[in-house]
Amino acid sequence: MYDLIVIGSGPGGYVAAIRAAQLGMKTAIIEKYPTLGGTCLNVGCIPSKALLDSSEHYHNAAHTFKTHGINLSGLKVDLKQMIARKEDVVKQNVDGIQFLMKKNKIDVHHGFGSFVDKNTVKVTKEDGSSETIQGKNIIIATGSKPASLPFIKIDKERVITSTEALKMKEIPKHLIVIGGGVIGMELGSVYGRLGAKVSVVEFMDAIIPSMDRTMGKELQKSLKKLGFDFYLKHKVTAVENKGKEVIVRADNGKGEIVEIKGDYVLVSIGRRPYTDGLNAETAGVKLNERGQVEVDDHLRTNVPNIYAIGDVVKGAMLAHKAEEEGVFVAESIAGQKPHINYLLIPGVVYTWPEVASVGYTEEQLKEKGMKYKVGKFPFMASGRARASMDTDGLVKVLADAETDEILGVHMIGPRTADMIAEAVVAMEYRASAEDIARMSHAHPTYTEAFKEACLAATDNRALHI
């Protein structure tokens, strides 16, 4: 009998297992695929960043190196090598998780996990054989799968999801992206930089619509420079695969049908919780109408010894959110009193410029009727950004109108994925905009833009604009 069984080895699952082992629990983890790490390490966060970095290097070599005084000739993309490097990066990370399981004496069971009862899980292996294991506590960490629309037939050849977009055999001539969210913008960027024409069809009136609207507007401006076309407020009505051509039809909101022709369609309209075959109901676990596992504030299901974390429960589908939840549950089982502030889990879009955000958006503050002030600072005015030719974007700080407490920080620009951590620290300690404004930031750095935006929020005191 294990103290804890974790079903799923993504960032939520494997981190939960490690923390449980650290706390002295006899722990097992179940993974249906041959490799550990889940979507994030195998077909998500890690491989997409590898391709984003490779494509950004190529784009700079083609477009900015000359200005830097670096002249190249005969520049071309070796997509096969780019994909091979990506796979090597994935392997290194996946092997790292395998090592961590051994180091922490966690038993790894490869196979498909499904409930027999609230303490028993059946593991069905690839060859059809199975075994059952028992645990005092069980964590469901089965993650999510790409979502689609009922009338779209994903053939994985021309009509693809993010999984297939990470292993293309050719650069699309015209990639049509259905969905203007994070995944679509990142993978669209990869192929846009490599020379593909990219058209984005989005139902909402903005790209990355869940983030502060200023970010979407700024990112759209930058992506237009890459040659992106945007069809906002367009509802896709049909996707037709004609062999080497794919046709997307969309209602433009005026009763007119727009036809877009390309050679590949990337369907990136979000992800759905993955509970297929889990047999949650056999253990008495309730799912909601969206297929999510229902949990309370302690991430416990309606069955007291069964918990759920990550993409399979409510909240943002983010690897680092799942990790925090994994630690939270392991520590809760051990009798500790952990805490997660969901407002302060940052969101990042790894395009270039990068987009990063934490706390309330301006739209949310308006909706809540909260009085706030805004401070902005553009990277165009940053010495460091000028030096690196990364002048697109800005930092936007939202602070309480009376107390000056920072309520939200939204950044689009160079290295904002890393810079946002300063804002998270500040907000965890309930810093005011003036607190950050009075801290010394090294010069020249990108982070000075955060200080300047805080100065701007504090009686409009920005120094360099």
Automatic annotation (TrEMBL):
GO terms for cellular component: cytoplasm. It is an enzyme of class 1 (oxidoreductase). It holds the Pfam family Pyr_redox_2. Its EC number is 1.8.1.4. One of its GO terms (biological process) is 2-oxoglutarate metabolic process. It catalyses: N(6)-[(R)-dihydrolipoyl]-L-lysyl-[protein] + NAD(+) = N(6)-[(R)-lipoyl]-L-lysyl-[protein] + NADH + H(+). Disulfide bonds join C40-C45. The keyword Flavoprotein applies. InterPro entries: Class-I_Pyr_Nuc-Dis_Oxidored, FAD/NAD-bd_sf, FAD/NAD-binding_dom, FAD/NAD-linked_Rdtase_dimer_sf, Lipoamide_DH, Pyr_nuc-diS_OxRdtase, Pyr_nucl-diS_OxRdtase_dimer, Pyr_OxRdtase_I_AS. Residues 2-326 form the FAD/NAD(P)-binding domain. Coiled coil: none annotated. FAD binds at K49, G113, T142, G143, S144, D311, M317, L318, A319, H320. Its cofactor is FAD. The active site is at H443. Keywords: Disulfide bond, FAD, Flavoprotein, NAD, Nucleotide-binding, Oxidoreductase, Redox-active center. NAD(+) binds at G179, G180, G181, V182, I183, G184, M185, E186, E202, G270. Binds 1 FAD per subunit. Residues 345-453 form the Pyridine nucleotide-disulphide oxidoreductase dimerisation domain. One of its GO terms (molecular function) is dihydrolipoyl dehydrogenase (NADH) activity. PANTHER family: DIHYDROLIPOYL DEHYDROGENASE, MITOCHONDRIAL, DISULFIDE OXIDOREDUCTASE. The active site is a redox-active disulfide bond. Belongs to the class-I pyridine nucleotide-disulfide oxidoreductase family. This is Dihydrolipoyl dehydrogenase.
